[in-house]
Design a protein that fits this description.
Number of helices: 9
CATH superfamily of the largest domain: Response regulator
CATH class of the largest domain: Alpha Beta
Strand content: 15-25%
Distance between the termini: 90 Å
Strand order of the largest sheet: 2-1-3-4-5-11
Largest sheet: 6 strands, parallel
Number of domains: 2
Length: about 325
Amino acid sequence: MKREGNRMLRGISMLVSVCIAVLFCLFVFYFVPLITSSGGGWADDSSDAEDRRYHVLVVGKQGNESVLRQIFEGAQEEAGRYDCVVELRTPRSLADDKGMQSLLDYASFTEPDGIIALMDESDAAVQAPQDSEGRNIPLVTLAQYNPSVPQVSYIGTNYSELGTLIATESISCLGGAGSIIVINTSNSNNPSYSTLMGSLTNTLSGSSGIRAEVLDLPSQEAISSSGGRLRKAIASGEVDLIVCLSPEVTIRTAQLVASLGRSGAVRIIGLGENDVADMYLKKGTVTELLSIDSRRTGKTAMTELFEYIRYGYANNYITTDVKVRRSGE
């Protein structure tokens, strides 16, 4: 009887051990991967993230994934130098894209040591990201400058030089003679934009063979208006080249030109980087795209961010080179 009791205890003990082993295997092979992959977005997969002293977020909206990836990779190249882990965060889809403010709010929740944000012209009213103690998280903005945004540093183009470059490329594109429409959907009160427009129009006016018109539109949506001036000029062949001063305007203009069957006949020079704009460049609907060097910009952003983190100051405004990409090259 006693032996049978001992056998039963050993059997129960063995069964418990097997159950524990099975539960452990389930935890290792199922729950651990589930937990570690639940962050979403694109993230630095550095296994030594816990050993790094600093954490930096690179954020941007849907449609800019390839640009953000280059900025992220440039920032990552500098990560070891600053004992830092870098994470890239974008919305998973257009449906999840609630705008830059939601990305900065997310950043406030995770409390990184700094943020690098790719901005566009719709991001003028964003609030400063703050940590749990109400202190501003250092923010470096890229591409689109607006003085009302609470940034410690901006990295982008010299607007006066950019206006001259756009005009020079436009004149060259038309061989020194033709009709140009420059689309203006921006707030003329923005001093940077006013500088760009002044330089652009002054340079164009110096070319006797160029007829240039600035088309003021209340919004990007007005570009495709059925009775609009732009649509009529494209359809009638009245315009040879359209100059667009943001990725969003470039895309809408390309869509309109393509829908009217005027791709190639009406040329487009666009400004800024965007995956959809890149697609139209490859198709030949967009003739040229002018943009910043994204990888180099990511590296520069890290330098400025850690200048501020370590010493409390950074260069407020940094200009970077503009690259020109042409369809077919």
